[in-house]
Amino acid sequence: MTPAGVRQELLGASDVHLRIHSFGGSVYDGIAISTALKNHEGRISATVDGVAASMAAIIALQADHLEMPENAWLMFHEAGQG
């Protein structure tokens, strides 16, 4: 899903439920999606169906309520200093 697609889906929506299974993707697109969700006035809930890694994990954290089954994964990169 693109940032423009997410913004389009959010138009006129009140409460939103995200289903996430993603290994991540573009940092720049992820930041834009995360910002769109953060600025949404309605309640956001999310379910990680399998994996939310990298930017998908950051997006998942924008939810007001996050659910994950026992066998799901929320994975972040180790941040390094350059």
Topology, element by element:
Elements lengths: L2 H8 L5 E7 L4 H12 L5 E10 L1 H6 L4 E3 L5 E3 L7
Parallel strand pairs: 1-2, 2-3, 2-4
Helix pairs in contact: 1-2
What does this structure look like?
This protein has helices at about 5-10, 25-40, 55-60; strands at about 15-20, 45-55, 65, 75. The chain has about 80 residues and is α/β, with parallel strands linked by helices. Strands 1, 2, 3 and 4 form a 4-stranded parallel β-sheet that branches. Strand 2 (about 45-55), helix 3 and strand 3 (about 65) form a beta-alpha-beta unit. Helix 1 (about 5-10) runs parallel beside helix 2 (about 25-40). The termini are far apart. About 20% of the residues are buried. The model has no long low-confidence stretch (mean pLDDT about 95).
Task: Name a few traits of the molecule.
alpha/beta; globular; 4 strands
Quick take:
This protein has about 80 residues and is of the alpha/beta class. It contains three helices and four strands, in the order H-E-H-E-H-E-E. Strands 1, 2, 3 and 4 form a four-stranded parallel sheet that branches.
